[in-house]
Design a protein that fits this description.
- The structure holds 2 protein chains of 2 kinds.
- Chain A has a single domain, classed as Beta Polymerase, domain 2 (2-Layer Sandwich), CATH 3.30.460.80.
- Chain A is built from 4 helices and 7 strands, in the order ααββαββββαβ.
- Chain A is of the alpha/beta class.
- By secondary structure, chain B is mainly α.
- Chain B has one domain: Orthogonal Bundle (Cytochrome-c3 Hydrogenase, chain B), CATH 1.10.645.10.
- Chain B contains 16 helices and 8 strands.
- Classes of the chains: A alpha/beta, B mainly alpha.
- Chains A and B meet through β3 and α4 of A and α1, α3, β6, β7 and β8 of B.
Chain lengths: 165, 384
């Protein structure tokens, strides 16, 4: 199966249930979308991520009821540097969607989605631990994998693979 | 009172530390503390070629290495747009189901041992040894198999391999009966597991639980059936679901899964297609030794793949498979070079562990051990 070029035109993708729902709710919240390798990614504006997640979860026609994963990608040295990535799954429709939020490199922060899914607790702690992205409203934002007194955030691209010596 | 359990405790299945706030015998609050096995595998992956990451995936979850191999290679194959020949896909399914049985056997043995049933452990490890010998025969390694490669399989299965698998598939169902004879109707087992560490379907979904932990609470979702990969759609199997949401329900789900898995191994043996085990992609897949010795191009490709890897078109992929513990997902981001820009493993155990406080709070201290066993965690996968 040869690779198809990615579709990035929002007009072409507006019939996807998640995109349609978000556009109907608040067009300003959707910064863009990409359909590549049979996977849907939606760029969500930073301040509306929690409401967007809540909306997609509550959506009765097409509920993305399950938060599979939260992670982050560091595009150092380009700006906006961080991309926080949410993978949502719909158990009833057997469909996935990926939400992405772009964040600046200086003091990256966004809203926590723990009020929507308690599952986000550990995922967000892990992102905070390894990337230094802060989640506002998280109940217990402490390091998860690294020791409490560790300095730096190891998965950032400017952190050496062997660590500081 | 705050009680510290672990990190070195025989029933925590690795190095898990739990801070238990207790009121007499009752649990008020549980705070899991993890990270003792953190080895920075995700960071290491970014410094390796795509093909060099495969052995690292074994080491995440040492009870189901082949499931992790599969998930990673599927993700990279999706990035590359490779078509995998049917024989390789069926071999992958067969070995994955054997891995599931292997993992469930270790779980059953240690879970029963935690609760006080010694014999089951010995029975389970007897059959597990047979499976490890099969893995050794096909891949050369008992545990760190690395048998799946990007684009296919590492080797042709050796002569006599399918006969050995057939022999095991014939024997195994009666062994599951043996375990069930020891446990399912056993009143002590019932008292320790029934009604213990309950979790509702809503809580399980909200907390991100997956696999038997989710299906034990009555949510009928299995990635193999609902979002099939690697030709699982060609197999007939039932997804065991239990409504009770307690330790016994999760036990019943996993035991039933073992029976389904061995039936799928049998289906794979019966219908194993003939043909190549590697896709046609000379720039990605190492050539056969014979071709390398006779053809100049094959030798060049071999040299280039080994020394400078192969470039993967830029993009990102999230591939999830149903591991014995739940949804194992790999999120691979490529920037168009020969090394992955980002590899993230979505660990089923990490999410399942989040459900532990909900299961145990308000219950007896002695039930914590049963609850930990029932969510079947592997700390290597949690900490990565």
């Amino acid at each position: 199966m040869p690779l198809q070029p990615a579709i990035t035109d929002l007009e072409e993708l507006k019939n996807h249930p998640a995109v349609a729902k978000l556009l109907a709710w608040n067009p300003a919240a959707v910064e863009g979308a990409k359909f590549d390798r049979d996977e849907m990614s939606i760029y969500v504006e930073r301040s509306s991520i929690r409401d967007a997640c809540d909306l997609l979860r509550q959506n009765t026609d097409f509920p993305f009821n399950y938060l599979a994963d939260i992670t982050c990608v560091d595009w150092f040295p380009s700006e906006p540097r961080f991309e926080v990535v949410y993978h949502l799954l719909s158990h009833s429709k057997k469909e996935r969607v990926r939400l992405k939020v772009r964040l600046d490199g200086s003091s990256p922060a966004l809203d926590s989605v723990t009020p929507v899914w308690p599952a986000a607790n550990y995922f967000e702690r892990e992102v905070f631990d390894l990337y230094g992205v802060r989640f506002a409203g998280h109940p217990y934002l402490r390091r998860l994998l690294m020791p409490e007194d560790w300095e730096g955030h190891p998965l950032r691209k400017d952190y050496p693979v062997e660590g500081y010596r | 009172m705050i009680l510290n359990m672990g990190p070195h405790h025989p029933s925590t299945h690795g190095v898990l530390r739990l801070l238990l706030e207790i009121d007499g015998e009752n649990i008020v609050r549980i705070m899991p503390d993890i990270g003792y096995l953190h080895t920075g595998i995700e960071k290491t992956c970014e410094a390796k070629f795509y093909q060099q990451v495969v052995p690292l995936t074994d080491r995440i979850d040492y009870l189901c290495p082949l499931t992790n191999n599969l998930c990673y290679v599927l993700a990279v194959e999706k990035l590359l747009g490779l078509e995998i020949p049917p024989k390789a896909q069926w071999m992958r399914v067969m070995l994955n189901e054997l891995t599931r049985i292997n993992s469930h056997l270790v779980w059953l043995g240690t879970h029963a041992l935690d609760i006080g049933a010694m014999t089951v452990f010995l029975y389970c490890f007897r059959e597990r040894e047979d499976i490890l010998r099969l893995f050794e025969m096909v891949s050369g390694q008992r545990m760190m198999t690395s048998y799946f490669r990007i684009g296919g399989l590492a080797l042709e299965p050796p002569l006599g391999f399918f006969e050995r698998v057939q022999d095991f598939a014939t024997r195994f169902p009666s062994k599951v009966d043996e375990y069930e004879n020891l446990l399912t109707g056993n009143p002590i087992w019932g008292m320790r597991t029934k009604g213990v560490a309950r979790i509702t379907a809503e809580d399980a979904v909200a907390l991100g639980a997956s696999g038997p932990t989710l299906r034990g609470s009555g949510v009928d979702f299995d990635l193999r059936r609902d979002m099939p990969y690697s030709s699982y759609e060609k197999f007939k199997f039932r997804v065991p679901v239990s409504q009770d949401g307690d330790v016994f329900a999760r036990y019943a789900c996993r035991v039933a899964e073992m029976r389904e898995s061995i039936a799928m191994v049998q289906q794979a043996l019966d219908g194993m297609p003939e043909g190549p085990i590697k896709a046609v992609a000379p720039k990605v897949i190492l050539p056969d030794r014979e071709m390398m010795k006779t053809q100049m191009e094959a030798l060049i490709y071999h040299f280039k793949i080994i020394t400078e890897g192969f470039a993967v078109p830029a993009g990102e992929v999230y591939q999830a498979v149903e591991s014995p513990r739940g949804e194992m997902g790999y999120y691979v981001v490529s920037d168009g070079t020969a090394k992955p820009y980002r590899v993230h493993m979505r660990s089923a155990c990490l999410a399942n562990l989040q459900a532990l406080p909900t299961m145990c709070e308000g219950r007896l201290l002695a039930d914590v051990v049963a609850a930990i066993g029932s969510i079947d965690i592997v700390l290597g996968e949690i900490d990565r």
